[in-house]
Each structure stands twice: as C-alpha cells, then as structure tokens.
Design a protein that fits this description.
Blueprint (H helix, E strand, L loop, with lengths): L8 H23 L14 H25 L18 H22 L13 H68 L15
Helix pairs in contact: 1-3, 2-3, 2-4, 3-4
Length: about 210
C-alpha cells in the first residue's frame, strides 16, 4: 500500500482555509448576501445547527476512513481536483474546511438573535439567562471549532501512517502463530523418538 503523507499538513490546512475564506468573502461582498447551510433560516435552534455541523464533519471523516480501509490501494495521491475516491489528507481537508467556514458564518448569524425559534419565556430574567447561555455557547464553538478540526485532521493523518503498520503487525502475528503450531507438531513427533540409542558405536550392522 503506497500512502502519500503530508508532513506539513497544518500549514496546508491554514492555506486551504485562507484561500476559501478570501474567496467567499469576495463573493459575499459582491452579492451582499450569503446563505449558510447552518444559519437561522435552516436551523431555528443554535443547538441543532451545532449538532448538524459536527455530524457533517464526522461523516466526511468516516467516509474517508471507510474508503481507506476497504480499498486495497486507496487513492492518497495529491490531486488539486480531489475526486471522490481520493482520501488524502489534502482532499479530506478540502471537504471539511468549507463546512467549517460555513459554520462560522452561521454562528455570526445566530448570534444576532437573543432566543432560538420556539423558545418561550415569561420573564425578562429568563430571556437574559437564555440569551447569555446562547452567546456563551456560540463563543465557545467559535473558539473551539478550528482546534477540533485541527485535531481531527491530525488524528486522520496519523491514522494513515499507523493503519498499514497495524496490518503488517497482524500478518506478522498470524505468521508467528502458524509457525508456533507447526513447531509444536514437530516437537510432538520428536518426543516419540528414543532418548537413548543402544550400541551407537558398533561397526556391525544387525
């Protein structure tokens, strides 16, 4: 199995994020409107938006891992076009980074509202508490989203290194187990031979 690894993948991730972010900022400025798949129009609750984002990112990684372990020779070569079967760290990054940028846009959109759709309160104190909790959650997601993405890509990159080694290790254990069984059978046969040979020094054949 030939695996193409990216030693400076963190630099690569930063470049991808910057390129996509700048490109989307230009589009946003030109159209003066951007529709995030996690924004208020799609998810009335910030909780649902957060869950949806993390599920989508998780699905990208799970699909890549499934392809990687199921293919005898997975496609991990560098390819800027990133076909669907390419599971290199670069291509996985190119799939999750747009979701990350989209999520940041959605957090900005949700932060403009004090309550989620469907929230019902009876007192000003309740509204204040809910609004405060929402903003705290949004701030935490905004600050942690990149670190989580960074860690996930690091783990995936490490997986690409260790999985082939793991397979070779399993084959080695299997070979040793087979050898041990064969050796045990051979020793059983040897045990049936006499331990002492009588008249081994005779020159006469009887």
């Amino acid at each position: 199995m030939r695996i193409k690894l990216f030693q400076n993948w963190r630099t690569l991730l930063s470049v991808i994020i910057l390129a996509i972010f700048v490109n989307w900022q230009v589009i946003d400025a030109a159209t003066d409107e951007y529709d995030s798949i996690y924004d208020r129009d799609h998810y009335g609750s910030i909780y649902d938006a957060i869950i949806a984002y993390h599920k989508d990112v998780n699905d990208v990684f799970n699909d890549a891992i499934e392809t990687f372990v199921s293919e005898e020779e997975p496609n991990t070569e560098y390819d800027p076009d990133c076909p669907d079967d390419n599971v290199s760290t670069y291509c996985v990054s190119s799939r999750v980074v747009p979701l990350y940028i989209d999520f940041l846009e959605a957090l900005d959109d949700h932060s403009q509202y004090a309550l989620d759709e469907g929230d019902s309160t009876s007192t000003i104190s309740d509204v204040t508490d809910i609004a405060s909790n929402r903003l705290t959650m949004i701030d935490l997601e905004r600050s942690n989203a990149f670190n989580i993405l960074d860690f996930s890509l690091a783990a995936y990159n490490e997986f690409q290194i260790m999985y082939p080694i793991h397979n070779e290790y399993e084959k080695l254990i299997k070979d040793f187990t087979t050898y041990n069984k064969e050796l045990g059978g051979w020793r059983t046969q040897i045990a049936e031979w006499p331990s002492d040979f009588i008249d081994v020094s005779t020159t006469e054949c009887k």
